[in-house]
């Protein structure tokens, strides 16, 4: 069935390094993608989003890249800090199905930043 | 502007009891979504509501689960006759428009004993 998945379940980096978290999606009709950060015991926190008419979007220290040809999404975090340690989820949305309301989440990548 | 509010944060129920989870969306948001998260898994969509209407309940179990978003007051996710498999974190999200970023609450952690 349609799904969003992550290539790497865990990622460990040193403070100050750049981090790249990857996500593969299978639904070519998906037209909206979001990255969330979830810390232990908390709800997902919106990081950045991108629509399918774009291939790159930048925020503060974060960049999302979208490659529709290979159905790949990535989140780049510059100068990673210990406070970035969390689980990162990608999520997709598309116009098919019953509504636009349903986000489909990937499994998640655990990012650990070592001081 | 307060974020999405959920209560209770933790809820313990014995098998067979009812669980009621409440969600107040962000101010100005009329779209509410409920998701369930099992340990070490991603979030799974359950239901999408607008005021007084269920738009998409394709992720809701057919029995024992119901949701509402009345004209006044919070959205309610109700689980009747809870079983141990219902133990999970339940998250509510809201957005100002459909197909827009969804902002999540802190979740309700339901434990069924």
Word description of this protein:
- The complex is a heterodimer of chains A (115) and B (113).
- Chain A is an all-beta fold.
- Helix content of chain A is 0%, strand content 54%.
- Chain A contains no helices and eleven strands.
- Chain A has strands at 4-5, 10-14, 19-25, 30-38, 45-51, 56-58, 62-67, 72-77, 86-94, 104-105, 109-114.
- In chain A, strand 4 (30-38) and strand 5 form a beta hairpin.
- The termini of chain A are far apart.
- Chain B has no helices and eleven strands.
- Chain B is mainly beta and 113 residues long.
- In chain B, a hairpin with a 7-residue loop joins strand 9 and strand 10 (103-104).
- Chain A binds chain B through residues 32, 34, 36, 42-46, 49, 89, 91, 93, 95, 97-108, and chain B through 4, 6, 31, 33, 35, 41-45, 48, 55-56, 58-59, 91, 98-99, 101-107.
State the gist of this model.
By secondary structure, chain A is mostly beta strands.
Question: Topology of this structure?
Answer:
The complex is a heterodimer of chains A (115) and B (113).
Chain A: E1 4-5, E2 10-14, E3 19-25, E4 30-38, E5 45-51, E6 56-58, E7 62-67, E8 72-77, E9 86-94, E10 104-105, E11 109-114
Parallel strand pairs in A: 2-11
Antiparallel strand pairs in A: 1-3, 3-8, 4-5, 4-9, 6-7, 7-8, 9-10, 9-11
Chain B: E1 5-7, E2 10-13, E3 19-24, E4 31-37, E5 43-50, E6 53-56, E7 65-68, E8 75-79, E9 88-95, E10 103-104, E11 108-112
Parallel strand pairs in B: 2-11
Antiparallel strand pairs in B: 1-3, 3-8, 4-5, 4-9, 5-6, 7-8, 9-10, 9-11
Spans of chain A of at least 5 consecutive residues whose pLDDT stays below 50 are none
Largest sheet of chain A: 6 strands, mixed
Shape of chain B: globular
- The global form of chain A is globular
Total number of helices of chain A: 0
User: What summary fits the major beta sheet of chain B?
Assistant: 7 strands, mixed
* Span of the ends, CA to CA of chain B: 37 Å
Strand content of chain B: over 45%
What is the residue-mean pLDDT of chain A, rounded to a whole number? 88
Helix content of chain B: under 10%
The most extensive contact between chains is: A-B, 25 and 25 residues
What is the alpha-carbon Rg of chain A in Å? 14 Å
Class of secondary structure makeup of chain B: mainly beta
User: How far apart, in Å, are the first and last alpha carbons of chain A?
Assistant: 40 Å
Count of individual beta strands of chain A: 11
Helix count from the secondary structure assignment of chain B: 0
Overall structural class of chain A, as computed from helix and strand content, comes to mainly beta
